[in-house]
Amino acid sequence: MPNRFARNAAGRQPKEVSMRRILWTAVLCAWLAAVPAGRAAAQTAPAEPAKAADITPEAKAPVEAMCAFLAGKKTFTFSVEINEEQVYPSGQTVQLTRFADVAVKRPDKLYSRVTGDERDREMVYDGKTVTMADYDRGVYAVVDAPPTIDATIAMLADTYGIVAPLSDLLYADPCREILANVRTGDCVGVHTAGGVACDHLAFTQKNADWQLWVEKDKTPLPRKVVITDKHVMGWPQYAAAFSDWNMTPKLPADLFTFKPGKELRRIELKPLAEGQAAQGGGHE
């Protein structure tokens, strides 16, 4: 069985590889799995006024079990297939598919590689810096980073506008992020995702509805997430199907060390405010 986290001679992973911020990943990176501008704005909007969420016990128990399980693991890897709808100005909706592999080593190591439609990108966080490589464009950037995964995810979003789809699952306390702006939550029933029986949960927020499938087992892992963005015309969906969870992985010693190949040119990643000024209010 091929090791998805083994790099080839050029420093690249083989091409065969594949909720506060619910909506870089799967996993971290606007670079890696860029969120449309409208969605990113909705994600980074100020927190809604404090109000007790109406979450049924049948929904709360599985999601809390999932959070506790993930929080208790220091090292794990997973893969995810991402199907994301994008709405054109004409109103037409198209779907893009990407594949991501993620490796987490708490508290200060994170690796993500995303390939697929319009994406061939890699992110490496080593506890001191974050390196983001765009192989399609032949460029990479390195920025200083805080000493924890949690602080780094927040820094990328606040400073560079890089929002991580599914990054809530990577926090030391996932539920604090996942349930931050939830208004209602319920259990739809026991349904199948990824070939296993799961508690199918449905939650609502001001600008988004989302569903979560949590495995019914001693390993309450997330198996699928679907987010419906009510902030964007056409209510596009973002769907992520998880697979290949490994809670005791043997990771390559150099996985969290980025060595750029000759085909890559280093560029500067500008902070959000500076980039907006230079690009007339936009930020890529």
Outline the secondary-structure elements.
Layout lengths: L29 H4 L3 H7 L10 E2 L1 H15 L3 E13 L5 E13 L3 E8 L2 E7 L3 E6 L4 E6 L4 H12 L13 H5 L5 E10 L2 E9 L3 E8 L6 E8 L7 E10 L18 E2 L5 H7 L6
Parallel strand pairs: 1-8, 7-13
Antiparallel strand pairs: 2-3, 2-12, 3-4, 4-5, 5-6, 6-7, 8-9, 9-10, 10-11, 11-12
How many helices does DSSP assign?
Answer: 6
CATH topology: outer membrane lipoprotein receptor (LolB), chain A
Q: Beta-sheet strand percentage?
A: 35-45%
Secondary structure tally: strands: 13
Rg result: 18 Å
Organism: Solidesulfovibrio magneticus (strain ATCC 700980 / DSM 13731 / RS-1)
Keywords: Signal
InterPro entries: DUF2092, LolA/LolB/LppX
Protein name: Periplasmic protein
Task: Provide a brief overview of the structure.
Keywords: Signal. The protein is of the alpha+beta class.
